User: What shape does this take?
Amino acid sequence: MRTFNIFLIGFLFLTACAVGPDYSRPNLATPEKFRMADAVQETASFANLPWWDLLKDEELQRLIRIALSENKDLKHAVASVEEFQARLLTATMDFVPKADVTASAPSFGRKANFLFPGFPNAFNYYLQGNLAWELDIWGRIRRSHEAARGELLAREESRRAVVLQLVSGVAEAYFELLQFDLQLNVAKRTLRSWEESVRIAQARVRQGVITKIDADQFVAERANAAARVAELTRQMVQKENQLSVLLGRNPGRILRGQSLTEQVLVPEVPPGLPSELLQRRPDLVQAEQTLAAATARIGAAKADRFPKLSITGILGVASPQFSRLIASETAFGVIGPSVAGPLFNAVALGFQQKAAEAQAREQLAQYEQAVLVAFREVEDALVAVSTAREQRAVQAEQVESLQSALQLASLRYKGGLANYLDVLVAQRNLFEAELALAGTHRLHLVSVIQLYKALGGGWHAYDTALGSSTPAHEQPLEHS
Assistant: This one.
């Protein structure tokens, strides 16, 4: 009993170590606050809002829910998670002994009947059980399990990134569609105005008040407005087709809810602390889990260079006569330790370890790059939100002034107090300004959505809505 206890303690001691580096999050120099954030740093980010509290348009909410249910990229991501869940379970089974059974019956005849019972071979009836259990002395199985777990968590974060991309992609496409609607209405209204101007100009040509060259200018502007109507109609239909694909459907008409100018978003968009970005953004967590998996594979590759100690055994019965298969003299069995180690392939295994180390350095560089890109996207979105709001305000003021100028120029032209150039320039400037204002309306809305996406918002709420529990990988893989 004492010998067994000593053996057990020694076994546990050996299996308590694992070769190769333990993973810990790289030390990254992250800023204390975002550069374009307000002076007063908010502790809570608006990215904590669920997407349905951010996007108030009920029709847009319906489209997003359809996309989350039917989008093909998301279904692909979900299937990928299920695949790596199975891979993790496969790696987990390496911790337990492997057992299998073989049986043989020479049913089609044999020429020899002189073999002794108790020896499994092609001339005997036999039933044999095999046992193999690798003792994870160097941590090869544990490191492989860590790598499989990291890959699974990376795929799960990839799925979450697809959800975030899908919510923001549908919202952005929807707002662009509303922009084309608004611009198309402006273009059609301007086209009708130019048609009236052409009618008046042609009448004045017949009266000899203006020349045909002057009337041709109005005809040219009318043609420009008609061309913009055709262009905007094409863009609107193409955007509907793009949005249909995001919804997992064939191209078709998309219903609208509120107009572009009626869309309401949250008035305040505090970004929160920069350090929260490392835990909130799915693509950053995905890159970190991929790095953790690559780090674990170094240990697995290093453990392959050491001898493997296993407990192996066989147990069964064998006999030339089926009727005497179950008898004391037909039984056989053996159990004991076995050792297998690399010999001529030791150099190749060393190169495999170097390849795993290089892959980990590659994943580290990708993780660091992903962090830099994430901070850049947040800063870009912050400045876009603040400047788009200011730009929209001044462009709205510009449109009001140009509307007043056009009205005055039209009255003076009809009264013979101004020439056609005043009306032409005023109408053209108003047309371009109204189109630009519609684009800025959309830019402001999309900038808020892009900031929400850059901060990694919304996907937690999606998981909660589906009733899934908080995943175990909210904290990165770390070892003490």
The first strand starts at residue 98 and ends at 104. DSSP finds eleven helices and four strands in the chain. Residues 317 and 331 are 4 Å apart (CA to CA). Residues 1-14, 464-480 have pLDDT under 50 and may be disordered.
